[in-house]
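Shall we go through a protein fold together, starting from nothing but its sequence? Please make up or recall a protein chain and show it to me in full. Go ahead whenever you are ready, and we will take it from there.
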Amino acid sequence: MSNHELEIVEVIEKIKDLNAKKVGLQFPEGLKVHATKIARQIEQETGALVIISAVPCYGACDVADLDMIDSVGVLVHFGHRPLPLNYDLPIIFVDARSNMDVIGCVKSSIDLLDGYKRIGIVTTAQHLHLLKEVSVFLEKNGKEILMEEGAGTIKGQVLGCNFSAIKNLDADAFLYVGSGNFHALGIKLFTDKPVIVADPYLGDAREIEEFADKILRIRYARIAKAMDAKKFGIIVSSKKGQSRLELAKTIKSMLEDSGREGFILLLDDVSPNILLPFMDLDAFVMTACPRIAIDDSIMYKKPLLTPQELEIAIGKRKWEDYEMDEIKYGI
């Protein structure tokens, strides 16, 4: 379907094996357009009642097991690989493997990788099955390939909230195969090494240096604005894969020790509108998805910081020790 392969036949066989009478379906936003077609096929071939989760889904950290526990016997979650979490329902995870050609954009990366021998390769779940092909191509072009597993991820995989697969790689540079800039930004900030994006959706390759500098300038401005803040909202997610209440409690104690106030706010989805009743607070700290503070900061009227950025704002961390926030699954 579209640019992805969804393993519907295998899903139907698993549903039959489980003898499930009610089946939940959950999709990330980009795959929801296929929901009704897949639901129809499952109902026709299994006789089960299908219930589609229509709420936003942001990743494997956001599985709808609790939402659907009283409605279905099994949940099929499309587009992500499982995390080391305890789920409250039987979950069938279905990779949405991209069928796009990646060699074209990897070819475009060769000039940008000139002068670098040891290349760390990473990607997201959609392109993991293509990394062997990428590795062979780069090796034929004189590169030594490095890949490792991470905490809760398989070899070569990074998440938007976890970059543990790259931390121990002694690479001269990194090649990220995928779209967007956020994953590459995280790799850059975690390693301080050159990072090249090979984007199969655009069919080209680019450096991340200029984008990283731009984001850091924005983050430093947010941190500077929060330095005078006295009252902080500490955002905690009710999503199982994003919930970091213990971290929020540590942040609250840290703020109180520095003569400030911290108020823990429990949310499901985080948005500017939901925070409007709390505009008496001077700034917010994000312990939910680390991407929100980085990707969406322009949408918020008050500074929205990561825990590490808060440490800088209150003098517990040096500016030069800036690092990306991440959720440490399986640790």
User: Anything to note?
Assistant: Residues 4-96 form a domain with the Rossmann fold fold (CATH 3.40.50.11840). The mean pLDDT is 91. Residues 113 and 249 are 44 Å apart (CA to CA). The two ends are 36 Å apart (CA to CA).
